């Protein structure tokens, strides 16, 4: 992103550059974790995904997802899709705003119950990565006091980790901007 800035002329402001870098790092970390998890799943549990999970495994997985409040993740999806569609039609004619908002509100109410489909599908996927005995152990863990603490504290720890990663990325961004500037100056470019 190229914008004018008094300190860093020609580049995005340090804050904006750091935020962009932090988002990039976050996406890269998540992609890395997902890829590593997929690789482990392929290496360790190819048999699990080759055979459809039992109904008992799916029910256990669904219980685990419910304990972990997966529905809170899925609930905004219906609203997001409806709002995105409303906004698409608003571009056609902004004068339809009142009617589109009313239709959107009705559709959100109508389709909100469909998030249970997501929970069922997610449970099937979850169950395909664990054996039934593993799912029983996981369920017992999440029902335990420590498991309940993990459910409560893990999002907080993740938020704090993201804030820390953002600060780290901010510092790294400043360092890289200064280094790049110095190297470009050596090459006769004053940026």
Backbone structural class: mainly alpha
Count of helix runs? 8
How far is it from the N-terminal to the C-terminal residue, by CA? 14 Å
Number of strands: 0
Oligomer: single chain
**Major beta sheet, specifics?**
none
Helix content class: over 70%
**Strand content of the residues, in percent?**
under 5%
Low-confidence region ranges: 1-14, 40-48
- pLDDT averaged over residues: 81
Q: So what's the overall shape?
A: flat
Succession of helices and strands: HHHHHHHH
Whole-number total of structural domains? 2
* Radius of gyration, CA atoms, in whole angstroms: 24 Å
What is the fold's blueprint, element by element?
Elements: H1 14-44, H2 46-50, H3 55-67, H4 70-92, H5 97-111, H6 115-128, H7 132-143, H8 145-186
Word description of this protein:
The protein has 191 residues and is mostly helical. The protein has 2 domains: 33 residues; 103 residues, no CATH class. It contains 8 helices and no strands. The relative contact order is 0.13.
Feature tags:
single chain, 191 residues, mainly alpha, 2 domains, disordered N terminus
In short:
This protein has 191 residues and is mainly alpha-helical. Helix content is 81%, strand content 0%.
């Amino acid at each position: 992103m190229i914008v004018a800035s008094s300190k860093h002329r020609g580049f995005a402001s340090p804050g904006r550059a750091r935020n962009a870098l932090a988002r990039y790092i976050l996406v890269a970390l998540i992609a890395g974790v997902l890829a590593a998890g997929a690789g482990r799943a392929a290496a360790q549990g190819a048999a699990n995904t080759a055979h459809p999970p039992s109904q008992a495994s799916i029910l256990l997985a669904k219980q685990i997802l419910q304990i972990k409040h997966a529905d809170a993740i899925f609930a905004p999806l219906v609203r997001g899709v409806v709002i995105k569609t409303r906004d698409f039609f608003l571009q056609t004619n902004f004068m339809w705003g009142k009617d589109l908002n009313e239709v959107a509100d009705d559709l959100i109410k109508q389709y909100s119950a469909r998030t249970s489909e997501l929970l069922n599908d997610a449970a099937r996927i979850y169950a395909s990565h664990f054996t039934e005995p593993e799912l029983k152990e996981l369920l017992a863990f999440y029902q335990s006091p420590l498991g309940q603490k993990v459910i409560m504290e893990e999002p907080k720890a993740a938020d704090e980790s993201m804030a820390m990663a953002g600060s780290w990325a901010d510092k790294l961004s400043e360092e890289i901007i200064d280094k790049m500037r110095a190297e470009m100056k050596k090459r006769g470019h004053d940026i």
